[in-house]
Design goal:
heterodimer, A: 353 residues, mainly alpha, ABC transporter involved in vitamin B12 uptake, BtuC, 4 strands, 75% helix, globular, B: 339 residues, alpha/beta, Rossmann fold, 45% helix, 16% strand, disordered N terminus
Chain lengths: 353, 339
């Protein structure tokens, strides 16, 4: 099946190389636009319905109480920023479970730099490439071994978790002496502009940049091509390995960013930062209409998926569902959303959209 | 740094003086305890602490207590960590027995598995005491000589009572009060037993409404999200507790997210994580319980020494120390090494 698909991309031997590239790019452009409109249609609908349901049924319409909206806007980006990267990576056809350990490891390194007297701004600039190195390691392991990324990054997750536990002794470290509440650095990552938490603006800004890269750039085309059919992409001259490594490095950098943003808000490093994010991020990305098999998904969908996952938890508690049962409902809802997503996508595709 | 060192030294001195004054003073005259000139009292003795613990700050503090007591008394002591692996811990216990020490302090984290090993060790003439965790039935369930550790139920009772007393002093009608307790892992033993202690205190104050909140695991933001949503959904919440260190750390932020003023919801919990310390200072958190696990390592050595010399078998409750705004300045610099 795959070989056939690959074959169809193979040009006749006398086909001019330049022509091939243009052809292929056009083909990919079409696919990208298709993805954009499909993924970008059902998820917003689900998002709006979710909000309406929680607004209507929460006692006193508490769901849209400004305090609740502010809390969601402030807390969601901790997971959300990382999930945006995971979305890109999953479109590329790979997973990264190690985020749950790379995040606290980055937070620990950040804290150590602060304790060594490094200015938080300098530490911030240093941490982003350090995060990318964690991604580079994952990426190299995945493309070099050819093993499933699920297994590779499960291993690196365990590896880095062990390292950060031993290095930190599991002890939380206060960073308030280095980044006092209200200091310029704290304002930059966790402050407010009017009523809007800065975290939300960072999240939206990063989503915008990744969206442009994904949907309007050459790299985006390569990512979709790699995710939908590696062999075909390779045949088209896409450096599949490089594309994957770049995606892993994006995830790593975003882990570093989220780690600093979260630590600054918490006022401390905690070895348990990010635990559980690995699966929550996948759930969010899938709810956002991304295919687990790669090649399908959109940035709008991913960003909304993140909010849907977080709003579910919040909204269910606001409905006064016994908190012990919340997980059950989240599980049910995720399945439901994925089914709805699949159905709408299929229907739209069937109608020739 | 120097003031921190001062505190540590003070603390050591205080503990040593308390131990010497409380336990030894009446017998200091007895020649049984008299060490030869120039020697420390327990010289030549060797003790083992066999724990289920891992390489984490809690056990680092227990170890510190053990080493300080061993240094003070001139004996040798070693701690075994088993990373919560019962089979591994049992192997460590057998190794400890085989090394023929003058005594073993054991974390009894299983009600059946330790019955026979402890009996066998005692029969072989090696004294075994319990630390940190005891058989559910205490002395009736396991032959260990005595037990040193935090009584979790009593600790829960103490934090509950402290918060409820504050509520009563504010003139709140406690019969209508609602108590919420967030737990990282609600099914875990610590959460169950501590909440039972809180319920003991509730009964005493005539409070009937209680709900346990699943904090969603040990991730910080997840806990904060859930506690925030709960506070917004349940404005009737009068008392908000954290069952463990992570939930308690997030209480302050969650209360702020929910638009509560300091003290509007009377809050408290366990441990002294950075967020909890900030909460105590800013009056969002009224009190938190410190386990004082240093004493578990420290007293293990001293009690085993006293058993060898005098066959004393005291049961010691090390926990239930209340940290409040008044004493936080003293406690904070000790965190990580002694607390």
């Amino acid at each position: 099946m795959e070989a056939k698909g690959a074959g169809s991309y193979l040009p006749p031997s006398d086909y001019p190389a330049k022509r091939l590239v243009v052809d292929v790019e056009r083909k990919m452009q079409r696919r990208t636009i298709q993805n954009l409109s499909l993924g970008g249609f059902s998820t917003p609908l689900v998002f709006i319905i979710t909000i309406l349901i929680f607004w209507a049924f929460s006692p006193g319409h508490r769901f849209l109480d400004p305090r609740n909206v502010a809390a969601i806007a402030k807390l969601t980006p901790d997971l959300g920023v990382v999930a945006l990267g995971i979305g890109v990576l999953m479109i590329c056809g790979e997973f990264d479970l190690s985020i749950a350990s790379v995040l606290p490891t980055c937070s620990f390194i950040f804290t150590q730099l602060l304790m060594a007297g490094v200015s938080p701004f300098v530490a911030f600039v240093l941490l982003l490439p350090i995060g990318a190195v964690f991604g580079l390691i994952n990426g190299l392991l995945v493309v070099r071994t050819g093993l499933p990324s699920f297994i590779i990054t499960l291993s690196t997750m365990l590896f880095w978790r062990g390292i950060v536990y031993v290095a930190s002794g599991l002890m939380p470290i206060s960073i308030l002496p280095y980044i006092p509440t209200g200091s310029p650095f704290a304002q930059m990552l966790t402050g407010q502009i009017g009523p809007v938490p800065v975290q939300l603006l960072w999240f939206l800004g990063i989503a915008l940049v990744l969206g442009v890269v994904l949907h309007f750039g050459r790299l985006g085309n390569w990512i979709y091509a790699t995710g939908s059919n590696q062999d075909a992409a390779r045949a088209m001259g896409v450096d599949v390995r490089l594309v994957k490594i770049v995606c892993y490095m994006i995830v790593g950098s975003l882990c570093a960013f989220a780690a600093m943003m979260q630590a600054t808000r918490l006022g401390s490093f905690a070895a348990t930062q990010g635990i559980g994010f690995e699966l929550k991020a996948i759930a969010a990305v899938v709810v956002g209409g991304t295919s687990l098999r790669g090649g399908v998904g959109s940035m709008v969908g991913i960003a909304l998926g993140v909010f849907i996952i977080q709003i579910l938890e919040n909204g269910l508690i606001l409905l006064r569902v016994p908190v012990f049962g919340v997980n059950t409902f989240i599980g049910l809802a995720v399945i439901l959303f994925v089914i709805i997503n699949n159905l709408t996508n299929r229907q739209l595709a069937g109608q020739g959209f | 740094m120097s003031s921190q060192k001062m505190h540590r030294r003070d603390f050591l001195a205080v503990t040593a003086a308390a131990a010497a004054g409380g336990l030894l003073a009446p017998m200091i005259a007895s020649d049984v305890l008299a060490a030869p000139a120039g020697q420390k009292p327990a010289e030549g003795m060797y003790f083992r602490l066999v724990t289920h613990g891992g390489d984490d700050p809690f056990w680092a503090v227990v170890k510190q207590g053990m080493m300080d007591a061993a240094e003070l008394y001139g004996c040798k002591a070693e701690i075994d960590l088993a990373g919560s692996d019962l089979a591994n811990q049992q192997k460590k216990f057998q190794e400890a027995v085989a090394s023929k020490p003058n005594g073993i302090a054991l974390v009894i984290n299983d009600d059946q598995a330790w019955d026979k090993p402890v009996e066998d060790a005692l029969a072989a003439g090696i004294p075994v005491i319990g630390i940190n965790n005891d058989d559910k039935e205490g002395a009736a369930g396991n032959k260990r000589l005595c037990y040193i550790g935090q009584n979790e139920r009593r600790a829960g009772y103490i934090i509950g009572r402290t918060l409820f007393e504050a509520g009563k002093a504010k003139g709140i009608d406690l019969t209508k009060a609602h108590v919420a307790m967030a737990a990282e892992v609600p099914a875990a033993m610590y959460a169950q037993v501590r909440s039972a202690g809180v319920k003991d205190a509730m009964a005493e104050f005539g409070i009937t409404s209680f709900e346990m909140i699943d904090g969603g695991g040990i991730e910080m933001t997840t806990n904060e999200q859930r506690i925030t949503a709960y506070l917004l959904a349940h404005p009737e919440t009068t008392f908000m507790l954290g069952a463990g260190g992570i939930c308690t750390d997030r209480l302050t932020s969650a209360l702020k997210n929910a638009g509560k003023a300091p003290g509007e919801v009377i809050a408290g919990g366990f441990d002294t994580a950075p967020g909890t310390v900030e909460g105590l200072k800013s009056d969002y958190v009224l009190a938190t319980i410190d386990q004082q696990q240093y004493l578990q390592g420290y007293f293990a050595v001293i009690v085993l020494y006293l058993y060898n010399k005098l066959r004393l078998t005291p049961n010691i409750d090390t926990g239930g120390y209340l940290v409040t705004k008044e004493n936080i300045e003293f406690i904070e610099p000790l965190s990580g090494k002694y607390r």
